[in-house]
Specification:
By secondary structure, the protein is of the alpha+beta class. It has four helices and six strands. The strands form two sheets. A four-stranded antiparallel sheet has the order 3-4-6-5, with no helix packed on it. A two-stranded antiparallel ribbon has the order 1-2. Helix 1 (3-26) packs antiparallel against helix 3 (108-147) and helix 3 packs antiparallel against helix 4 (151-184). The protein is elongated, with a radius of gyration of 22 Å.
Length: 186
């Protein structure tokens, strides 16, 4: 492996860590209707576990209500059971044609709890980034021994690794701050 390949691989892994954090943030309830909260709902559709979003259209009616319109109206009861089983914290309401999820406003205490969860998720992502940095540094040492790299080249590459790490840590901090702001906004 070359130094450039090592840097590229490390950057890709860090990008994946940030994307995983974004996905996790998308599933955190903020008191506003967000279709991403339904990503973990899997419906038993004629014996086959099927993600809800593949078998229905999901729309935001107003800032507080999600409307789920199944393509097959005969499975509304199954969808409701799957939503309850997924423990979304919201009871589905059905009129036989569509299912509505109304998100109640969050209390101040609940908002603070959610912010703690956001900070923990961000810290976990930063730990992942630092582990990737450690792996990159270890790989650089192997390359240094194999290729007899000059000391200044090793130092330059260590600086590159640190700059990449700092960049992704800042991205995580920015996403966390944005999510906390979203949660705390009434």
């Amino acid at each position: 492996m070359t130094v450039d390949e090592m840097l590229s691989n490390g950057t890709d892994k860090m990008e994946k860590a940030v994307n995983a954090l974004k996905k996790e943030f998308g599933q955190i309830r903020t008191g506003r209707a967000n279709p991403l909260i339904l990503d973990k709902v899997v419906v038993d559709y004629y014996g086959v576990p099927t993600p809800l979003r593949q078998m229905s259209q999901v729309g935001v009616q107003d800032g507080q209500t999600l409307v789920i319109t199944p393509y097959d109206k005969s499975i509304i009861k199954e969808i409701e059971k799957a939503m309850i089983k997924a423990e979304l914290g919201i009871t589905p309401n059905s009129d036989g044609v569509v299912i509505r999820l109304t998100f109640p406003p969050l209390t101040e205490d609940r908002r603070k709890e959610i912010c703690k969860d956001v900070k923990k998720a961000a810290e976990d992502a930063k730990v992942a980034i630092r582990n990737i940095r450690r792996d990159m540094t270890d790989e650089l040492k192997k390359i240094e021994k194999a290729d007899n790299l000059p000391e200044d080249a090793v130092k330059d590459n260590q600086d590159k690794i640190q700059k990449i790490t700092d960049k992704y840590v800042k991205i995580i901090d920015d996403h966390a701050a944005e999510k906390e702001k979203e949660v705390m906004t009434v």
